Each structure stands twice: as C-alpha cells, then as structure tokens.
Amino acid sequence: MSQQTNWVPTSVDLEKPSAARAYDYVLGGNHNFTVDREFVRLVHERHPDSKHFALQNRAFLRRVVLFLIEQGVRQFLDLGSGIPTVGNVHEIAQAADPSARVVYVDIEHVAVAHSQLLLEDNEHAAMVHADITRPGLVLNDPDTRRVLDFDQPVGILGITIGHYILDNPEGVFAAYRDAVPAGSYLALSHLTDDFIELSDFTEAIGHSQTAVLPRSKAEIARLFGDWELVEPGLVMTSQWRPDREEDTRETSEQRDGLYAGVARKR
Ligand SMILES: C[S@@+](CC[C@H](N)C(=O)[O-])C[C@H]1O[C@@H](n2cnc3c(N)ncnc32)[C@H](O)[C@@H]1O
Predict the structure, then answer these.
(1) Residue 207 is assigned to a structural domain of this protein
(2) CB atoms closer than 10 angstroms to residue 241
(3) Segments forming the whole domain that contains residue 171
(4) What tens digit of pLDDT does each residue of 242-255 get?
(5) CATH of the domain at 245
(6) Which of 77, 164, 176, 213 to mutate to test the pocket of ligand 1 (most atoms within 8 A of CB)?
(7) How many domains does the chain divide into?
C-alpha cells in the first residue's frame, strides 16, 4: 500500500485505525495514516469535542508530572504512553531532574518503535512493548526492572487508558498499586458519560483496533483503591490544578469528557 513508509514497522496494521495514531493526529503529530485521519474525522463528526478531550488530557498529563516531581517522585511508569509527541513524560521529568527515570508501556507498534528510537541514548528511560492488562509481564519485564527501583516511590500514570480496559480495570490497577511502596502515586484520566450521551462516540471508536468503555465517577474512583486522592479530588481534566489560563477557557464537564485524579499510597 502506498502509505508504507520507512518509519513503519512491518508488523503495523495499516487497514484499521489505531488509538495511538489517531491520538497522535489529533495532537498535531505526523505518525498516522489516512485510515487514522478518516477515523478521527468520523469520531469528530459524532462528537465535535473529541479534540478538546485530547488537548485537555495532554495538559493534565504535563501538570501531573510537574506535581509529582514537586512531591519528590523521580520514577514514572507510564501505562499506555502512546506515540511520542511534544511534552513526553521523560522530557518534562528530566528537565526538572536529569536523573528522573521513566518506563513507557504501550501495545501499539508505531508507538513502541518511535519511543524506542527516541530513547536509544537515554539510559534512564525505556519503552516496554506489552499489554498493560497483564501487569505481571509489565512489572517483571527486564527493562522495567532495570530502570525502576520498586523500593522507591513510583508515579504510576494511567492517562486516558482505563477506558480501554474493558474487563476488571479494578484488578489491573490493584496489581500496579500493590507493586509500589508507600509514597507512590497513581494518576488517572478516564472517559465518562456522566454528563453526555456517548454511545455514538464509543460506537465510532469501536471501528478502531481498540474499543472503549466510559465509566461513572464512582466506578473510576474505585480504580484508586484505598489510596488517598490529593486535592482537588476526582474532577474533570481542566479542573485538576490548572496553571494556564488557556486550559480553563471554554471548558465544561461535557467538553472535557474525562475525569482526572491523583492519589497517594500511605
Ligand atoms: C489515547 S492514547 C493516550 C496516550 C497518553 N497516555 C496520553 O494520555 O497522552 C491511549 C494509548 O493506550 C494504548 N493502549 C490501549 N490499550 C492498551 C493495552 N491494553 N496495553 C497497552 N497499551 C494500550 C494505545 O495504543 C494508545 O497509545
């Protein structure tokens, strides 16, 4: 197919849109194909605020990493990290402290190939190609063990990822929570249909390689287990410690679409 270019691993499925490549397109990246761009247009037709979801989410990710750095966290496990784009976790964290350590995890081939390339010379960061619903594989991967010290606090990032876990997200996040010591944090953002009917949107997403399942605030709160949510609790992405005027302009529960929260292990 004419879309095949030299940066595309041979294992990539070019027939079906992928969440990682579609998200890359929405954020203004170049690692996507016609099939992904058409998919984004379809989703956008069904739900015009979908780009707003993504931009607010990425802004939340930046604020979370800076917040965790302020709290003294120097290690990050980024679950469902996506295709590297502006403002990756290691860039933000290592700008604050060059010794900060980051393990990225994703299942999508383009995301994995590009992250591996980007991190080639970065001995404090690694990309693990794995399904995050198999925590044992992620946590015992040799690269995870090489980069992260599980005796020290870890910032677990599950940013727009919980809604891709259709079965037992509580069990999946519990396994990650159990693997880290006191002083660790879990940050999540998660699609919700508490404020808006999303069945058209989720049906459209179902045409990609991964389905999504929006959840209620109570269901999402359970993913933190007994960890204590830091202020301001579980709120919409733009309401979580905003630090730029542009991130709070023209937002609403309906437009943000995702709950966001950060909790600490005592
Ligand atoms: C919307 S992107 C989010 C990227 C990044 N976390 C952010 O918020 O900017 C979701 C990512 O999750 C990945 N993903 C979905 N299901 C996954 C799974 N079971 N295991 C690993 N990665 C997964 C997709 O490939 C995609 O890159």
Answers:
(1) no
(2) 15
(3) 57-196+212-264
(4) 999 888 888 899 89
(5) 3.40.50.150
(6) 164
(7) 1
